[in-house]
Amino acid sequence: MSAAQASPATGPLLSARDLQVRFGGVLAVNGVSFDVQRGEVFTLIGPNGAGKTTVFNLISRIYTPTAGSIQFDGKLLTSMPAHAIAGMGIARTFQNIELFEYATVLQNLLIGHHVHRSTGFWQELFFTPSVRRAEMQAREAVERVIEFLDLQHHRDSLVAGLPYGVRKVVELARALCTQPRLLLLDEPSSGLNVEETDDMAFWIQDIRNELGITVLMVEHDMSLVSRVSDRVLAMNQGETLAVGTPAQVQSDPGVIEAYLGSMEDMSSLRRPTA
Q1: pLDDT digit string, tens, across residues 32-71
Q2: Which of 67, 229, 248, 272 is the least buried, fewest Cβ under 10 Å from its Cβ?
Q3: How many whole angstroms separate alpha carbon 133 and alpha carbon 11?
Q4: What is the gyration radius of the CA atoms in the chain, in angstroms?
Q5: Do the strands 90-93 and 239-244 form a parallel or antiparallel pair, or are they unpaired?
């Protein structure tokens, strides 16, 4: 499966500088800056209300920053409309699953792949040879995603009848069908049991290692964060507390006080030994 398209090998894939978002009198994000390097898993952590999802909404162009800038592969995102983001190679999953409940898994994934269709209205209307070729290519690409995420047994099932954990994987598959270079994962372990969370960690690692897709994640499960993240940015009340490896962040006094709460919680951040 071909994931990320070729891009310059130098510089960060995503760069955020001095982001600020104000909702009325509330400063939701204040002076946040970070770089996401190509091929890494970079995770935002912090308590509820820390501003993590707001940062995601800035990247997705759901929100416009009050101040600051975001660049993706050298291009300024803050001047682009929201509908242009997917076409640039950025895909997102949501904490609350966003799927068509009464469509099959296959149909949901074909819709996800549609962002890459370049055929025009009249070509679609008359189902020209170029449209037929595009349909075949889309079907092949979607089938590769289904195989990659082991969804073969669910491909023709209605999403509404699937267990929650499987739906989370389907949403991940939908995002992959857009063939992203940057994948935004918003709480990928939310609502999952321990076994399903382990599976999700496996998929995230494979997405980075096998597909070469850069991952930016918001996550509360610190064992998952520790297992898959190269670097972590800890936030609190809209500001940056610390940036570094999971081991570095776990030892930061501000993070301990604001987010982790007690020294006993530190063990959940440590990477499992091989």
Answers
A1: 999 999 999 999 999 888 999 999 999 999 999 999 999 9
A2: 272
A3: 36
A4: 19
A5: unpaired
pTM over 0.90: no
The CA distance from 99 to 109, in Å, is: 9
CA atoms within 13 A on the CB side of 33: 6
What is the rounded distance in angstroms from the CA atom of residue 98 to the CA atom of residue 104?
14
**Gap between the Cα atoms of 229 and 43, Å rounded:** 6
Residues 46, 48: Cα–Cα separation, whole Å: 7
Q: How confident is the model at residue 121 (pLDDT cuts 50, 70, 90)?
A: very low
DSSP letter assigned to residue 243: E
Determine which of 23-27, 118-122, 210-214, 222-226 has the lowest per-residue pLDDT on average: 118-122
Contact 199, 164 (CB under 8 A): no
Quote the mean pLDDT of the chain.
Answer: 85
Instruction: Determine the 3-state secondary structure of 245 from DSSP.
Output: coil
What residue segments make up the domains of the chain, in order of their start?
A: 12-89+180-274, 104-179
> What are the structure tokens assigned to 217, written together?
């994640």
Residue 256: count of CB within 10 angstroms of its CB: 19
Model pLDDT, residue 16: 97
